[in-house]
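Whether sequence alone determines local backbone shape is best considered at the level of individual chains. For completeness, the protein is quoted in full, as a sequence line and a line of structure tokens:
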Amino acid sequence: MQFFVKYLVNRDRVQRDCMLTVDHGRIVGVEESVPLPNGAAEYAVPGFIDIHTHGGDGCELMDGSVTALETMGRFYLRNGTTSFLASTVTDSLPKTEEVLATAARFLPENRRRARQGEMAECFGIHLEGPWLSRSNLGAQNPVYCIPPERSSLEMIDRYADIIRMVTFSYHTPQSERLLERLVESGIVPACGHDETIDERITEGFSRGIRMVTHIYCVTSSFRRVGGRKHLGTLEMALMTDGVGVEVIADGKHITKYFWDFILHNKRKEDIFIISDSMRCAGLPEDPEKIYKLGDMDVIVDEGVAWLPDKTAFAGSVATMYGNFRQLIRWGTTLSDAVGMTSWNQARLFGLKGLGEIGPGSRADLLLLDGELNILEIVKAGVPVKR
């Protein structure tokens, strides 16, 4: 199979007038400066990789069913996300383990169907809690917020083969053992929903914390402790090279002022665009309708998900494609946007052949017109039915 495109965009280069040859789900050739047929796409970019998403199209991971995960996988793929980590929300350990068991049953069949272009591929699970700070929970349920004791570590051990990232607050003594266990297991430790201060989080970075979850969204920041001033995880992450920061770039969770400040302080290699989408993503907006994020009530109004009293956002209704377009509106180059929506994610999680378009890479890509509208989505070399 062959695809023709005027601009082939990777995070480190743009090639012109290209013919992509695909065989058995892989790019086997990229020929430049070829005559383009009528109807050739303007741009080709790698498929998006979402490392923090709870759900969409009416379903979430916490529904605890294979059917919900299948719905999510199809929804993501229709919107240009070709690979994803499914994210939990804070719940009881038995409920969390039940969800993990369901995911373990889903993943092999999902992998097979993703190779056939039927859904996005889920490459694992992101646990967002329950080991968070009660003072910085946002839309997480405080009833289930616990320190990471022995039973928590044992659950992680049982599912270490599918857990790829864990968000926790590094402010408790027990969190030290959790961090150690995550590093030992090759799981990405992420700090978020936390009350960690400068000295403590700096120690955490040195011991292996590699990510800060949705920065500027319930991330600890400047405060006084015993009358003395301290920076928080937010400020320390922005000034520490090699520590990644998740960004919900929907224009709601952060504005361009925040985006410019993040770019001023962070290397582009350390910025990871995410959706943080929940079940409302892709559904009509109705501020009178109550949805669920885990077992928390949520409404959708003004293009964003809220707690019903509008005291805090509750996940998002964004897609990676929408975030990608927002980056371009903010003046980000296509190559940099590609890096922050696919390349960086693939490198962090060792997803070989993803996040780029070139010989040997997986044929997961989007073909776009000159206005960045999606012309075609290709998953594992298969054009996706939308």
In short: The chain has two domains: 1-46+356-386, 48-354. The longest strand covers residues 13-23. The first helix runs from residue 66 to 78. The mean pLDDT is 96.
